[in-house]
Amino acid sequence: MKKVCMLVHTHSFLDSRIFHKEAKTLQKNGYEVTMIVPRMKGKLFNIDKEPFQNKFLQKSFRHEGINIVTYNVESFKPTAPMMQKKLKSVSANFNNVLTNIGLNQQADIYHAHETASLYAGIGVKRAMKNKGKEAKLIFDSHDLIPDPFEESQTKNAVTGNLLDTMLKEVDQLITVSPSIKSWYIAKNPLLPIEVIYNSPPLNEEFQPKEYETKSLTVGYEGHIADHKKGSSDKIFKITDLCSATIDFRFKVIGGVLHGHTLSIPDHLQEKVKVTGWIDYQQISEQMKEIDVGWIDFDDLKSSLNRSYALPNKLFSYLNNGVPVVVNKCHEMEHFIRTHKCGMVINKTRATSEDYAEAFLFLHENRDKLKQMSINARKVMERIYSWEKMEKDLLLVYQSLTSNRFNSFYF
């Protein structure tokens, strides 16, 4: 049995991509999977950053078939200059907690999910090679790193140079959209790269939406973060504008992160519903009453990542036959126009008024809305469901364990 070790630095161990999709897929297909995951202030934490107080207290345990080994993240906070210095020294000892625990696993494949965990993985790979054992290293880039629009030029150059150095020791890169893949190809044309979309397994209980009621419910899944995505001000304004002419509801699946609050205006208490953070498996049930999904990636001038993103929520909507309305983001615009599964506002900075106009148009054109819903579900069934993605993931792993690099992706 081949051993896989997931190296995690900032994500929750219950992250949908890392745990629910990748780790479980590998485990059910015959791999022994261990995840090395961070505690914050001694506690493991949920996807909304809320610490678990009364469970997952052991330093190591087994959860749903996956081995979990923990460490305190406060003991591993490497800076970019320090990592670069160690990487350039052939004889440097990567004496940090994540590398040391990873080395104890003696795995066949290490799968890193952030810059710091990739650094730790290179330390493991080098140490094992010095002892005559070869381990393969995957870098799973959930985002574009570095984001050239988001950081100062100096910081961007430091992070970019660091990543360029580390990619030379990576055996396989995985990412989440074609645009991010193209970015990495430009950096390292010979590195094998595969896109594994952040899509869920098909909702087996899906029932086609009929759109026969006279009301409209718009949904938003995920983190409400003003001025970046899911602005609460926009949610309230959209609800006000649409409610003036139709029976309108707004449903948020998720909400604010632990320690933050969301105050809904008194006059919208019956119009805006917030579920709070729910289990991954419950998302489809919560989607049943949603007619249209909303994604707003605002301020694209400060983030190329948002232009290049195909986020989890996009595929959650499509999986449940929910058409999507989004502002003009490069990757999502191409996706939605290609598959005719939603509407793109032709503005990079769409206002509440723009979105309200789109929702009212769809409300009045139920035939278009229903066809978009059919297209949304169909594209998941044909191309993008996790059942399709896990086949690609397993092919990546098979190529690494058999030492075959069959394809370069251009």
From TrEMBL:
InterPro entries for this protein: Glyco_trans_4-like_N, Gtf3_C
Question: Per UniProt, which keywords does this protein have?
Answer: Glycosyltransferase, Transferase
The domain of life is Bacteria
Recorded GO molecular functions are: glycosyltransferase activity
Glycosyltransferase subfamily 4-like N-terminal domain residues are: 21-198
Q: Tell me which residues make up the Glucosyltransferase 3-like C-terminal domain.
A: 266-348
Which SUPFAM superfamilies does the annotation name? UDP-Glycosyltransferase/glycogen phosphorylase
Q: What is this protein called?
A: Glycosyltransferase involved in cell wall bisynthesis
